[in-house]
Automatic annotation (TrEMBL):
Belongs to the class I-like SAM-binding methyltransferase superfamily. MenG/UbiE family. Keywords: Menaquinone biosynthesis, Methyltransferase, S-adenosyl-L-methionine, Transferase, Ubiquinone biosynthesis. One of its GO terms (biological process) is aerobic respiration. It comes from the Bacteria. InterPro entries: SAM-dependent_MTases_sf, UbiE/COQ5_MeTrFase, UbiE/COQ5_MeTrFase_CS. This is Ubiquinone/menaquinone biosynthesis C-methyltransferase UbiE. Methyltransferase required for the conversion of demethylmenaquinol (DMKH2) to menaquinol (MKH2) and the conversion of 2-polyprenyl-6-methoxy-1,4-benzoquinol (DDMQH2) to 2-polyprenyl-3-methyl-6-methoxy-1,4-benzoquinol (DMQH2). HAMAP family: MenG_UbiE_methyltr. GO terms for molecular function: 2-methoxy-6-polyprenyl-1,4-benzoquinol methyltransferase activity; demethylmenaquinone methyltransferase activity. NCBIfam families: MenG_MenH_UbiE, PRK00216.1-3, PRK00216.1-5. Pathway: Cofactor biosynthesis; ubiquinone biosynthesis; Quinol/quinone metabolism; menaquinone biosynthesis; menaquinol from 1,4-dihydroxy-2-naphthoate: step 2/2.
Length: 245
């Protein structure tokens, strides 16, 4: 409510999100380092540590809202060379940066980039061994639809993993975190990307995201079982997971 983005109707939300990432695509990676003080690298390492790539030959991985490829490259590093990894994102500008980075890393034959919406995945049912989404689900206008799609494309026995900002559960840290979010983040955004507005949206979308236990309920509603979540850094982020039975 701080900046009025909450008033945006559902049908217009995706357009707003797309504008944000269109504007910041080329500076996205440096912004992540600046705004999280490098913490996002650590969170992503812990997150990808949970992906069991050794489960079988021909491992198929889908990273949704994969942007510039941070998660996919980490998965590629630990998976066998026969693994197939797909980065899916709605934004062509983010994917373009991802493709360039994959080429630089010599990973372009193992990582495929697909432009599509998390709410309507262009893959058959029961197709992937694992589905990841990092700092992406809160951008999807209809979260439940996105989760239902994740469930559909996973094979039975497939794993769902989501890394997202959460609620700071440590007294004192919550106040610091809020002050940081609403003051520092938009200011750095203005300095580096030349525009504070996309980052105001970002902070607000974090605040509006469902609480960890409610979000787990949505994951269960999609059909996942053995669900759970783990908070990192005092609850600044959380990793949610579940299996398709
Ligand atoms: N996963 C990457 C990471 O952790 O660095 C990128 C996260 S970035 C904060 C959010 C991404 O979600 C953007 O690249 C954006 O284009 C993408 N996105 C937003 N809405 C989407 C949708 N409906 N379907 C797929 N991707 C979407």
């Amino acid at each position: 409510t701080h900046f009025g983005f909450s008033e945006v109707p559902l049908s217009e939300k995706q357009g707003l999100v797309d504008n944000v990432f269109h504007k910041v695509a080329r500076r996205y990676d440096i912004m992540n380092d600046l705004m999280s003080g490098g913490m996002h690298r650590l969170w992503k390492d812990v997150f990808v540590g949970k992906v069991n790539t050794r489960s079988q030959a021909g491992f198929r991985h889908l990273d949704v809202a994969g942007g510039t490829g941070d998660i996919a490259f980490r998965v590629a590093q630990k998976a066998g060379s026969d693994a197939k990894i797909v980065v899916l994102d709605i934004n062509g500008d983010m994917l373009e940066v991802g493709r360039d980075r994959a080429r630089e890393r010599g990973l372009d034959d193992r990582v495929e980039f697909v432009q599509a919406n998390a709410e309507s995945l262009p893959f058959p049912d029961n197709h992937f061994d694992a589905y990841t989404i990092a700092f992406g689900i809160r951008n999807v206008p209809r979260i439940q639809v996105g989760l239902n799609e994740a469930f559909r494309v996973l094979k039975p026995g497939g794993r769902f993993l989501c890394l997202e900002f959460s609620q700071v559960a440590v007294p004192g840290l919550d106040k610091i975190y809020e002050a940081y979010s609403f003051n520092v983040i938009p200011a750095v955004g203005k300095l580096v990307a030349g525009d504070a507005e996309p980052y105001r949206y970002l902070v607000e979308s974090i605040q509006k995201f469902p609480r960890a236990d409610d979000f787990e309920g949505m994951i269960r509603k999609a059909g996942f079982r053995r669900t759970g979540f783990e908070r990192l850094t005092g609850g600044v982020v959380a990793i949610h997971s579940g299996w398709k039975p």
